[in-house]
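Quick illustration for those who missed Monday's session on complexes.
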Amino acid sequence: MKILSTTQTREADAYTIAHEPILSIDLMERASRTFTSWFVKKFPKSTFEMVSVICGKGNNGGDGLAIARLLEERGYDVAVFILNLTDNETEDFKTNLERVRQLQDLNKVVIKEVSSVEEMPVFGGDEILIDAMLGSGLNRPITGALADILHFLNECENTVVAVDVPTGVFTDMPTVGACIEADYTFAFEFPKLAFLFPENFHYVGDFVCASIGLDQKYIASVDSPYYYITSDIVKRIYKRRDKFAHKGVFGHALLIMGSYGKMGAAILATRACLRAGVGLVTVHVPICGYEVMQTAVPEAMVSLDEDRFIFTKVYDLPKYSTIAIGCGLSTKNRTRNALCYMLKHLNRPTVLDADALNILGQSPDWFEYIPKGSILTPHPKEFERMFGKVYDNFERNELQRRKAQEFGVYIILKGANTCVATPEGVCYFNSTGNPGMGTAGSGDVLTGILAGLLSQEYDPLEACILGVYIHGLAGDIAAEVESEESLTAGDLVNYLGKAFLKLRKL
Ligand SMILES: NC(=O)C1=CN([C@@H]2O[C@H](COP(=O)(O)OP(=O)(O)OC[C@H]3O[C@@H](n4cnc5c(N)ncnc54)[C@H](OP(=O)(O)O)[C@@H]3O)[C@@H](O)[C@H]2O)[C@@H](O)CC1
Ligand SMILES: Nc1ncnc2c1ncn2[C@@H]1O[C@H](COP(=O)(O)OP(=O)(O)O)[C@@H](O)[C@H]1O
Ligand SMILES: [K+]
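Prediction with potassium ion bound:
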């Protein structure tokens, strides 16, 4: 799913109105119906005493008024609060206000105008609040009377659901000024870029998005560097196995991993590589890892280093279809030199994780040796060690895109919405996964999956997108059974099979 900027969304909006064609007020009605259909399922009437819709005077407020009317039709008790802080009212706001006034005349809805925080009501505990104050039309940081109202609302204990954008959040740049702290945000058509960055979680809460029928051909024609990885993208990538396929066609991965005390990382990655479907896997480990690897992963072959404790040398690189290096590797000098030598002599995309990235962070000159099309999988700390500190996630995302382009590599920045940046500067944000995956070894599993997919001749971009999605999906299935708290990296490997099954049914 493509993510558009606010300006592009406005253009898509106008294009849809002109070419569907549809009246602007009817598009608002369709958007509001989409919201309402979701809302009534999420918050059944029986669970809340009352819904209070707080509206601005722009189109976000217009949506709020339409939603108030639609909820009343569905039997909800509805009150509407209109913020009287400006004289600028949009036409569609006015039309919807007229329609709600008709309900007020029938005593079906209460409407109240509010000009300051002192005029805000005391909400009951069972009341749910819908934030339709401002949406994508925010054009300056919120201060003054509106800021006071937002602070007041944030102090209330009520569940808050934002329409399209939580009031005060800038969708395409860092947010400053007062904001509503929503528990849920229902975004029209696609999530906004800001929703994908952790600093905004506090305002956005859990977000969902659904199509309001904007022109898909127009959206497809718009240039945007941002995508959200949903099942439609993954479905196109996933390849079913051929009836006559055999292990020879699924590649032979070499994983260079593990050091004394950190052999578990190699085990997790190797198991994940196998579960991701590799034909053959060889793990290169120091001598101390021999027995543990042979015992823990009987399916894997073991290549032994000359050193007892760390990685120092590996032979026969050309015979492997894919190489992944770094999990639990250590950053000792001889390992550093061995990595440098390898990078200079490899000529195909390689997966670099953990200590391989930490070593690169210590020796930035070596970035140019990384084979083009390789995949780097830093978590934010490793990213910082490689590329330096940033102020916020917009800046980090810019830096990530720039570095991916500069070095011709894929950079997977791991986190709640893991982001894959491509050598072309495009970003794909993952939609699967949960906080249960914040557990030791989760990243090693991802590295194993990526090596397994590359071995099966998924190209690097396909491997990145499918890899992060299926890794998160395994995490989501595992969390449903095991709970987020108890989820371990080993569970991610164990549930990978169920994730593939789910993928096949998409
Ligand atoms: N294609 C779609 O997705 C569709 C989108 N739709 C909906 O339209 C929404 C966008 O509507 P919009 O453009 O009318 O802007 P909106 O968010 O209501 O705000 C405008 C008002 O904000 C005010 N204002 C701004 N900053 C402020 C500040 N700091 N402090 C105080 N005031 C401030 C500004 O005031 P002014 O600058 O004039 O003083 C103006 O009055 C979008 O989010 C979605 O809900 C759907 O209806 C259908 C299809
Ligand atoms: N809150 C979260 N939501 C979704 N995925 C998460 C979350 N926290 C962590 N993850 C995922 O778990 C993995 C953690 O990787 P990493 O930090 O490298 O772990 P380790 O170094 O222990 O292997 C990443 O793939 C990341 O995307
Ligand atoms: K809003």
